[in-house]
């Protein structure tokens, strides 16, 4: 079963991910997690310790995985190549960055589809689509709809949002704690992060209209984890095999 989280930076995806892993562990369910800059990780998602989000370790991991992907040619009929061709970006640097992220995500998605168990994508393909639109030369909701038509659907999609001022405060606090190099290499910045919130909401409307299996969560309020986990278990019972 594949569960995907999406929403603007600062909305609370990591907090929700940790809560879901801990809550599902109480039901005897072990979860494998996937993040945008690393492939599937096994085991530690149920632990109480906070995820290491900042620092030189993240930069090293990103650089180590970037080279082979940047030098490769993506399959033209694959999701990664089609997304990047559909939404050309203004910046060559961000084009390289998104090529790496989306290629790794597609590989993780392929692994998850071919495996048994629960997989939660903290930053999955819908999140990547949101980022592409933020960075696009000429963003268009019609292009977004065209992309959604060929993108793989998870078994459950959880949209996380928060009021704009809450997002602004969290983003400013986050950027103040991060090394400058990491901010320059990996982050969208406060203004782009807030712009991504608007785009996430528009894409959420498209997903609901197209019948994607979607739950909405307010990241500014305590998460109703029991309700979400009940929905996860309900969806799992309907998944073939």
From TrEMBL:
Ranges that cross the membrane: none
Protein name: AAA family ATPase
Organism: Mesorhizobium jarvisii
Molecular function GO terms recorded: ATP binding; ATP hydrolysis activity
InterPro entries in the cross-refs: ATPase_AAA_core, P-loop_NTPase
Signal peptide per UniProt: none
Pfam family, one: AAA
